Amino acid sequence: MGVRIIGTGSYAPEKILTNQDLERMVETSDEWIRTRTGIRERRISDKNTAASDLALEAARRALDSAGVDPSQLSILSVASVTPDHTFPSTSCILQHKLGAPVTCACYDVQAACSGLLYSLQIAVSMLKCRKNARYALILGAEKLSSIVDWTDRSTCVLFGDAASALLLENDGSDEPDMLLSCILGADGSHSSKLCVPAGGSAMPASRETVEGRLHFIRMGGQEVFRLAVNAMTGASRTALQEAGLTVDQIRWIIPHQANKRIMDAVASRLGAQSEQVFVNVDRYGNTSSASIGICLDEIVRGGLVRKGDSLLLTAFGAGMTWGAAVIRW
Ligand SMILES: CC(C)(COP(=O)(O)OP(=O)(O)OC[C@H]1O[C@@H](n2cnc3c(N)ncnc32)[C@H](O)[C@@H]1OP(=O)(O)O)[C@@H](O)C(=O)NCCC(=O)NCCS
Fold first, then answer.
1. How far apart are CA 258 and CA 318, in angstroms?
2. What is the CATH number of the domain that holds 79?
3. Are 298 and 207 within one domain?
4. Measuring CA to CA, which residue among 61, 89, 57 is closest to residue 76?
5. Helix H segments across the chain?
6. Going by CA atoms, what residue is nearest to atom 12 of ligand 1?
């Protein structure tokens, strides 16, 4: 039984925060941000918007693109580091807003920027083992502006808000799976290098945690950079090998959009041409679990992929987590 991606959707809030805007907020410059990261602007939600609201728009667009009604969903997952609440899950909140049925399994995935790849493998497996499950909608949804320290120039220039959605179908046909290979990994020994220290059970919210700005993203940028390049390159090589493909047979490489220099380094180590690498970090910044789905949506809606094309997706994020998947479109 073949599982395929039959719909894509993405959504980013209208408000644009440019590098020039940031120049007025912290000691930085458009030139520094562009040359170090490739980012020119990012989208920022208003204060009444939650991750589930961003997810709702992306979900509707993915369902509409395939002509599938929310009532037909059997699986709904949201990957996020900025869920609406600690609990209940954002997927349950989205289920209600979207009008998905109570027979739909709803769960959140926490694998930071690798969340969509983790979600993809989980959903493909669930579609195969859950009786009568035909459609799964998987999302990455992030309101990163809610956990960014807007006084910390080393992190606040990097992130943006957005959501993306992929609609998967198991139609029970003899068509081969679209997922040719999927490599997932993690190394918790690096967990403190990219994290939000407070707000969980290890360090509950208190006056001290708020005053110490411990509810915001903390990151060791240079080390994360090095780990990201190594992990995405290694996972991509294994994913290509397992799919029986070489990099020149890949139409699009879609890396998690964290930083243009990270993407360039991964592409160069893989021996890929720069034209194979899809990049939109300049317009959105790092949108964590949403980024790969936004790229896929832009590729599909732009008519940039044809049936039979092979795509390599690869991601890296806090945890540390990483992954790579080869998809036959
Ligand atoms: C964050 C990152 C862009 C910083 O680039 P870098 O070249 O490593 O820069 P450094 O951290 O070495 O800082 C160099 C200098 O720039 C300064 N700097 C940091 N942020 C700055 C900013 N926004 N504007 C201007 N200067 C800045 C630093 O304070 C430092 O100054 P100093 O030399 O006087 O101490 C880079 O490390 C990176 O992209 N890391 C990966 C982050 C990431 O993608 N995380 C998410 C993974 S999913």
1. 12
2. 3.40.47.10
3. yes
4. 89
5. 19-23, 30-37, 51-66, 90-98, 115-129, 153-156, 207-211, 221-243, 260-270, 281-284, 291-301
6. 222
Both 166 and 201 in one domain: the answer is: no
7-16, 175-184, 295-304, range with the lowest pLDDT: 175-184
Give the active site residues: 113, 256, 286
Q: What is the pLDDT of residues 223-245, one digit of tens each?
A: 999 999 999 999 999 999 999 99
CA 100 to ligand 1 centroid distance, Å: 43
Question: If 0-12 CB within 10 Å is exposed, 13-18 middle and 19+ buried, where does residue 81 land?
Answer: buried
Boundary (domain end) residue, out of 120, 149, 170: 170
Which residues contact residue 169 at a Cβ distance below 8 angstroms, ignoring those fewer than 6 apart?
A: 3, 4, 6, 66, 68, 127, 134, 135, 136
- In angstroms, the CA 160 to CA 288 distance is 8
Q: What average pLDDT does this structure show over 294-317?
A: 98
Decide: 286 in ligand 1 pocket, CB within 6 A: yes
Note the pLDDT of residue 131.
86
Per-residue pLDDT for 1 more than 80? no
- Adjacent-strand bridge partners of 55: none
Q: By 3-state DSSP, what share of the chain in percent is helix, strand and coil, each rounded to 5?
A: 40, 25, 35
Nearest CA to ligand 1 atom 41: 225
26 and 70 share one domain: yes
Residues of the domain holding 272: 179-328
Question: Given 118, 139, 170, which residue is the final one in a domain?
Answer: 170
Q: Does the structure show a pLDDT above 90 at 176?
A: no
